[in-house]
Write a structure and sequence with these properties.
The protein is mostly helical and about 325 residues long. It contains 12 helices and no strands.
Amino acid sequence: MRFSKLKKQIDEMLQKAIKHIRWRTSFLSHNTALVDTKTGNKKQKPQFFAYHLFGRKVNHLLPLFEDLETGLHRSHMKTTLKPYVSLIALTSLLATSATTILISTILYFILQLDIFSSVLFGVGSGLIAGVSAIICLYIYPYYRADKIKRELNNSMAFTASYLAILAGSGVTPDVMFRSISKIPQKLAIVDESRIIIRDIELFGSDMTTALEQASKRTSSERFKELLEGFIATIRSGGNLKFYLTIRSQQNIESKHIALRKFSDTLGVLSEFYVTLLVAGPLIFVVMLAVMAMLGGGGFGLLDPTLLLMLLTYIALPIGSVIFIIILDAVSPR
């Protein structure tokens, strides 16, 4: 009789353990942005391919990219420093080779330039493309981290107000962030909340420890201040609703100030756009067209017709893309 009761208790404990494991697996696969099956998808294959291709050959390059590890950590990119440096090396090599071959072929076979000028201009373009690839991949983690920072800053009013409402209803802090993590919209604060819940549910951290790790990890000073105040209020036994309400009012005022500053910045950017990408190219197009009709000389090995094509099909699109990136970087959401 005792043996059957003991067996029944063991079966019940096993069933509870299995249900708990299934719940955690379901939570991580559906509600967590970082710990899921995405580690084996196609997005990370180029990094692993580059790592296996170069291996230890990039070890001497790691000191040059040592500060990049902070950007990778803050940008939530699911990779480490060595595979990413391998990806930078592979991308720069491919960009240099492809651009050199493509530009040399176009100049020699299509534009009928002599072979020396075609190869020389192709090699120069390839080196520029390789350096540009290195710069872009180096900047990308910081750009992504800055994008997360701006999204967090812009959502602080919503976050503080939402947390104040939850605090007023008497729920616990872990339930607050779990509620935010279940919001279906793709927001930076949702991803941060999912990481906090991941640290609690998967790694066994308590609430204050998970919040402290999030405050150290984030690049947003406003979000860091919110979390530090949240932690201090919990430890001191203060009124969370009152604290979050004050933070919400402060963030709304900061949002109004940021929008007024952006209107001034947008006026300056519009003047730059008109000068550099509208009036300037028109002047060069007219000048190069007149020089081509009159048979005037170009700039060294480049004739006016080639310069006109480079300005129209290369310089203007690249300038427009750069302006769009700058506008996206400074615009609040």
